[in-house]
Amino acid sequence: MIFPLSTERFIRWLSQELGSPPVRGPPVLVPVPNADVNEVSRAASLGLPAIVTSPNAVDMLASMLPRPVLVTALSKSIAIGPMTADAILGAVPGASVSVPEEHNSRALASSLADARYVLWCSEGVDRSLVDAVEKRQGLVVKLYRLDIDERAVDELRHSISDEDLVIFASGASVDAWRRLKRGIAANPRAVAVSRRVADALASDAPSSLAIFNDGDMRKFPHFLRAVYEG
Asked: Is the pTM of this model over 0.90?
């Protein structure tokens, strides 16, 4: 089985895209609001072009804002990748959404026009993107953080085996793994969604680690299936 060390949204997406082999929870990461509602509403009401770094950011905005303000906030957006673009269009059908050719923070930062933006992001956003927005006198709103669900980690610790595959989807996934591996008897195989995530593992990396270097997450399920069937 495949166990993403991630959020419920990521697990649901991967399960839908992959079909087989089976993807299982529990979600070990939980998005938690990290910004004041009034701050979010003020920034959203400005109607500036939005830079959105994850589907979780879209979910968080949708949960915090009245519908008209959400439309104002996301009607003109730049998404870090196609999954985030799909989330924006799901929340605001008809929004104008662009996606850079490379789906990462540094590529997004280097592609920005000379305009003022609102960056909707997580607590752990890449500094290069923050600097690019602030250089243009834009706003940076760290909407949420990813907390580790200790009960989910404990459940996974007792159910994972050597034959299973764990997925590192973010830096927070690495933090979850460091807690999970304490006392774990199994030695599962692993896949990291990027070189950056793999590098964050350092000496804590599982003995068998494949790295997805393409950058286009639409291709990730195919890569993952190939590794699993390997």
From this structure: no
Position 4 scores a pLDDT of: 96
Identify the CA nearest to 191 among candidates 142, 157, 147, 225: 225
3-state secondary structure 190-208: EEECCHHHHHHHHHHCCCC
CA angle 33/156/163 to nearest 5° reads 130
Indicate the SS3 state at residue 146.
strand
Cβ proximity of 170 and 148 under 8 Å: no
What tens digit of pLDDT does each residue of 128-182 get?
Answer: 999 999 999 999 999 999 999 999 999 998 889 999 999 999 889 999 999 998 8
CA angle 223, 229, 230 (to 5 degrees): 80
Using CB atoms within 10 Å of the CB of residue 143, give its burial: 0 to 12 exposed, 13 to 18 middle, 19+ buried: buried
The token pair at 68 is 């008209």
